[in-house]
Design brief:
Shape of chain A: globular
Strand order of the largest sheet of chain A: 2-1-3-4-6-5-8-7
Number of strands of chain B: 25
Oligomer: heterodimer
Number of strands of chain A: 8
CATH superfamily of the largest domain in chain B: Pyruvate-ferredoxin oxidoreductase, PFOR, domain III
CATH class of the largest domain in chain B: Alpha Beta
Helix content of chain B: 25-40%
CATH topology of the largest domain in chain B: Pyruvate-ferredoxin Oxidoreductase, domain 3
Distance between the termini of chain B: 37 Å
Helix content of chain A: 25-40%
CATH architecture of chain A: 3-Layer(aba) Sandwich
Structural class of chain B: alpha/beta
CATH topology of chain A: Rossmann fold
Largest sheet of chain A: 8 strands, mixed
Radius of gyration of chain B: 29 Å
Strand content of chain A: 15-25%
Radius of gyration of chain A: 20 Å
């Protein structure tokens, strides 16, 4: 069949997003599509893997291969797929509850491996699909359905965790800054290694604290000032900055061999293209080891 | 009758018992003998009691049997615990310069072979304590009539990397042990026909791993968990050679999802764990069923519940495998019967997983996974069928006209041809929410009961296709038997041997063994069982999980369920004895047996007495003060044999009723009786005829 021209339109999924009007996730979806167009990646070479949550519905809304997996398990499913076929561009997506709550262990360990995959977290500081409970990134004092007297737990610091865990591309975007976000996402997909883009993606229905205006007042772009994303300690400092201003942009980037680069079995190409089974000779040698 | 021998090696973890057992096993295998070894080790790096039994035979053996012919004791504890089990005509080999063997422990007709290890190793350089094992091995080779040079060759190979000096030392000690024993003791009189046919010595875990890679496994993920870890170790060590990517992950949640991700991308993927890890995997196994991703999950069962018995065997996870994950979804559960079957089961698992696009669970167990046995090299092969199922490589004109590729096309077989992510024109999304033929969700606000019904039926329809491919269980042995022994998975051989023992002794017995747990040939099973006279399920768990499954699937209720759940595997005579009892109308005796009371006493000695004592005499006596009969266990000092006191153990409940230190004057038979009366036991009572046995 004739290859369809790669446009935002051609990347539309079979169904329209079921997000609430005004949801920050629309901006993330658009940025992801723009980044794919900008990078010229054929959509069939993209695999978008999500967990469960409002934002995890995203794979259905984009014309690319996708797995809408279990709550918290986007990263291991994405990792398995990326290792099985490293010719694919694997993008994991999900929310803060999915990635930083139930999936937290996978988040840390996936970054330690420096796999060549991109993880976009639509961080709205609330559980939206379950109608408004405190999430791992809910700010202190925030009254939610599950914290009626105000949240007493410190929010997770995903960027600091990413830096400490070995992610080699760490960025933060904001749905209210779509062009800026597209640059970050395109940079993440183009990056060889584990890239994290944590996106402030306001929930207009269940989070009445961290709203568009709330973020607008606070965010500033790192690239507007003197800032070197090669400096890990500077990045660490920026990753913890939240009040009164919040930096967005590329905090850190480092070129480093990926997991796929160092796995000898992948030297012969993607696993899915390698021959199956054992030859008589190898089989005989394996048996001989036991005699 | 084939000549056979069972050799037990007893010691503590860290005594080098594994290496010694391995060398002996390889020697026997190179001589052309069959072997089966069972290691009842504990979850300790050093210390504890480890007991390795090797059954060596001219014929195929697949369980450790009922006998003990030669004991090799690597420590004092090993002598004390096992000396009394050695059968007449046998021998006990130990380091005489370090350990003593109380003649009272030794049955008549058993030869004591104490080895003067320092004398034997003089002039061979600095000797490590584990060298006593090599000396014992040399002695053993003479006693049982094995070829010294074969073992010497194996030591050469084993220590090749450590240099000539180490080789010379080991072979020197081996020869010294042999020479010394040959000069002082006659051989035990075994007449072997050594075929010298070389056979692999394998474990079930190795066979699963080898079968998997022969069958095209490309991706393996795991989290360390006994007793499945060997599969990880072997595949990791051979990863490049066999072309499988091995990934250790942070937990079993990651493990199974990694495998599913790889399977979804088109690689044959497997993971293995034990019951606890399998529990964590449950949700994702249901996901594999829902998104129709092939994946193979191995559960090498160990004693449960919870962390349970990490180093002991059990068949306790059948319910879990059948009940894993929420909802109904297609899955296959296979329980291989022996090591060679593990190989073929792994091959079959991948073919079923890919043909029917579903999770396949292999249920093995510690016994099958870790025991070593010989397999005939002809029993396994690299030339195995690899069936990858139906695939789509390009968009059909029909689909092009109808909204694109239908990943979940509704078909008569339930199988929807797969497309590999990365293929042009076939883009789809797999969702764990229920979905339509294209994969578009029908959950939430777009719920569609009609599509849900047909999609659910499509998925479940695949089970009929699977069932048609699986062989129903068949009756083995005589058709006119009085007793039919029924089992599943790893117990095939031990039940087989029990049936033979019973049959030979005049109780006509046959066997019905099940490998395919799900889908299950319930009608075929019922047709067979209805013609059987007395049916007994034999399984390694408390509740009789398989008997219940059999009833659910076939509508047939067996006459008896014979269970074992103490962490130990069955032995043929153990089964045969209880089957005879059941046939005679005697329920299984659940009272604390003498050897069990002794094991309980050992536990007390280890925890509360720093191992300074050992149980000597045990008597089962009435215990009016305790409301049940009791075992009165006399403990004596290990060093000088003086009485340390008496331990009172409930013969029904197993309760520890207390420890009564001995007064220094309490020595001998009479004083012991006086002492018993002083702790509330009738003086001089013996246990004969004490009623109140708790029964099953």
């Amino acid at each position: 069949m004739a290859t369809v021209e790669l446009t935002l339109k051609s990347l539309e999924g079979p169904v329209d997003p079921d997000w609430c009007p005004g949801c920050g996730d629309f901006g993330v979806l658009k940025s992801l599509k723009e980044a794919i167009v900008e990078l010229g990646i054929p959509p069939h070479e993209v695999l978008v893997v999500s967990g469960i949550g409002c934002s995890s519905n995203l794979p259905g809304f984009i014309h690319a291969y996708g797995v809408h997996s279990l709550h918290g398990r986007a990263l291991p499913v994405a990792t398995g797929a990326a290792l099985a076929n490293h010719a694919l561009h694997v993008v994991a997506v999900g929310g803060d509850g999915d990635g930083y709550g139930i999936g937290m262990a996978h988040f840390i360990h996936a970054m330690r491996r420096n796999l060549n995959l991109t993880y976009i977290v639509m961080d709205n500081e609330i559980y939206g699909l379950t109608t408004g409970q405190a999430s791992p990134t809910t700010t202190e004092g925030h009254k939610t359905k599950s914290t009626p007297r105000g949240n007493v737990e410190k929010p997770v610091q995903p960027l600091a965790l990413a830096l400490a865990s070995g992610a080699t591309y760490v960025a933060r975007g904001f749905s209210g800054e779509p062009k800026h976000l597209t640059r970050l996402v395109a940079g993440a997909i183009a990056h060889k290694g584990f890239s994290l883009v944590d996106v402030f993606s306001p929930c207009v229905t269940f989070n009445k604290v961290n709203t568009y205006p709330w973020f607008k007042e606070r965010v500033y772009k790192l690239e507007d000032g003197p800032y070197d994303p090669a400096d890990l300690m500077a990045a660490m400092e920026k990753s913890l900055e939240f009040e009164p201003r919040i930096p967005i942009g590329l905090l850190y980037r480092k070129e480093k061999p990926t997991y796929e680069d160092t796995e000898p079995v992948l030297e012969k190409g993607p696993l899915v293209d390698q021959p199956l089974g054992l030859g008589r000779e190898v089989f005989g040698e394996l048996l001989a080891e036991t005699m | 009758m084939a000549t056979e021998i069972t050799i037990g090696i007893a010691g503590a973890a860290g005594d080098g018992l594994d290496r010694t057992g391995d060398t002996l096993a390889r020697t026997a295998a190179r001589l052309g003998l069959h072997l089966y070894t069972y290691n009842s080790y504990q979850s300790l790096i050093r210390g504890g009691h480890t007991w390795l039994r090797l059954r060596l035979s001219e014929e195929k053996v697949d369980n450790h049997g009922d006998h003990l012919n030669v004991l090799v004791a690597l420590n004092q504890d090993g002598i004390e615990r096992h000396a009394r089990e050695v059968e007449p005509g046998g021998a006990i080999v130990y380091n005489g310069s370090r350990f003593k063997c109380d003649p009272a422990l030794v049955p008549d007709g058993v030869t004591l072979v104490p080895l003067p290890v320092p004398e034997l190793t003089a002039g061979l350089g600095k000797i490590q304590p584990v060298m006593q094992n090599t000396a014992a091995l040399g002695a053993l080779l003479h006693l049982v009539g094995f070829d010294l040079d074969v073992t010497a060759d194996i030591l050469h190979e084993t220590f090749k990397k450590k240099g000539q000096e180490v080789i010379d030392q080991n072979v020197g000690v081996l020869r010294a042990g042999h020479r010394h024993t040959a000069a002082k003791f006659p051989a035990l009189g075994y007449r072997w026909q050594f075929s010298r046919k070389r056979r692999p010595v394998v474990t079930g875990n190795l066979m699963v791993a080898l079968g998997a890679v022969a069958g095209g496994c490309k991706f393996y993920s795991a989290y360390p968990m006994s007793p499945a870890s060997f599969i990880l170790h072997w595949l990791a060590a051979h990863s490049e050679k066999v072309g499988v990517l091995v990934k250790q992950a942070e937990d079993e949640l990651a493990v199974v999802n990694l495998a599913i991700g790889a399977g979804h991308a088109g690689a044959r993927a497997m993971c293995a764990t034990s019951g606890g890890g399998f529990a964590l995997m449950s949700e994702a196994i249901g996901m594999a069923g829902m998104i129709e991703t092939p994946v193979v999950i191995v559960n090498v069962q160990r004693g449960g519940p919870s962390t349970g018995l990490p180093t002991k065997t059990e068949q306790g996870d059948l319910n879990q495998a059948l009940g894993a994950s929420q909802g109904d979804y297609p899955r296959v559960i296979i329980a291989p019967k022996d090591a060679a079957d593990c190989f073929h089961t792994a091959v079959e698992a991948f073919n079923l997983a890919e043909t029917f696009q579903l999770p396949v669970i292999i249920i093995s167990d510690l016994l099958l996974g870790e025991h070593r046995s010989t397999v005939d090299p002809e029993a396994v092969s690299s030339q195995v069928p690899i069936e990858r199922g139906e695939w789509v490589d390009a968009l059909s004109p029909d689909d092009a006209q109808n909204g694109g590729y239908k990943r979940y096309a509704l078909t008569p077989s339930g199988i929807s041809p797969r497309a590999r992510p990365g293929r042009e024109g076939l883009i789809y999304v797999s969702g764990t929410d229920d979905h339509d033929e294209h994969g578009i969700l029908i959950s939430d606000e777009h719920t569609n009961p009609a599509i849900r019904r047909k999609m659910h039926e499509k998925r479940m329809r695949k089970m009929e296709g699977v069932r048609a491919r699986l062989q129903p269980a068949v009756l083995e042995g005589r058709a006119d038997a009085e007793v039919t022994l029924i089992g599943w998975g790893s117990t095939w051989s031990v039940i087989h041997e029990a049936a033979e023992q019973l049959d030979r002794a005049g109780l006509a017995t046959n066997q019905l063994h099940f490998k395919y747990m799900h889908p299950f040939h319930g009608d075929a099973a019922r047709a067979i069982l209805q013609r059987c006279k007395r049916t007994i399920v034999v399984e390694n768990n408390f509740t009789g999980q398989f008997a219940r499954h059999l009833r659910a699937e076939s509508g047939f209720t067996v006459d008896h369920v014979l269970t074992r759940y103490d962490g130990e595997p069955f032995e043929p005579a153990w089964i045969a004895e209880r089957v005879r009892g059941l046939v005679a109308g005697r329920p299984v005796d659940l009272e604390v047996q003498e050897h069990e009371a002794r094991e309980m006493a050992y536990h007390h000695v280890r925890i509360h007495m720093q191992d300074r004592a050992r149980p000597a005499r045990l008597r089962r006596v009435p215990g009016p003060a305790y409301g049940e009969p009791v075992w009165a266990v006399e403990l004596v000092n290990r060093a000088d044999g003086r009485p340390e006191g008496m331990l009172v153990i409930g013969a029904s409940t197993g309760a520890g009723y207390g420890w009564h230190p001995a007064a220094p004057s309490l020595l001998g038979e009479t004083s012991s009786a006086i002492f018993e009366s002083s702790v509330g036991l009738p003086a001089g009572a013996d246990g004969n005829g004490v009623p109140a046995k708790r029964v099953h």
